Amino acid sequence: MLTLWTFDWVPPPPRGHVRDIRLRWALAEADLPHAVATVPFADRGHGHLAQQPFGQVPFLTDGALTIFESGACLLHLAEKSEALMPRDPQGRAETRQWLIAGLNSIEMVSVPWWFIGLSQPAANPLEGWLHSRLTHLEAVLARRDWLAAGRFTVADLLMADILRVPALRAALGPYPALAAYTDRILDRPAFASAYRDQLAHFAAADAARAEG
Description:
The protein is of the alpha+beta class.
């Protein structure tokens, strides 16, 4: 049995953006049976750290196997379903490389850019770096609808989740292909289902806390 592990509760921000949504979305796209289990948000103890050494979520268990980091979990799920990654060698290679590109070439720039922006500096020192990366990605998606294999894959799922952060979406104005791509991927029913599920999960936690 696949089990997706997330926090028992988080404050309103970052609800809707906790990274277990990536796994929820992939599981919905692939229609893979699974359970959802939790670790405490407030007390990240030894049991949690034994599964995820940085005290983060999500992590995934598949029988006796435990996998942490959302990218690694997505690749594990992709091996289970052709809905997430094609089975031919070229399609698999393209999917893997673009998933890693999302993590290493886009998110590693966009997250610190966003974090610096929270303090509203006069100038964000990462602005030029971010726009350089977005310019290169715009050139790719101006020529095709999907990142890999000529079809939706888990690489598109990850990239759209990176690009949907509100501050980053607001920065996509000069990048019409990226904006259209993000809207199109997020319009998939499996994303809507995953988003609802995450919000419902934390809303139920609110109710339990109120009763407690």
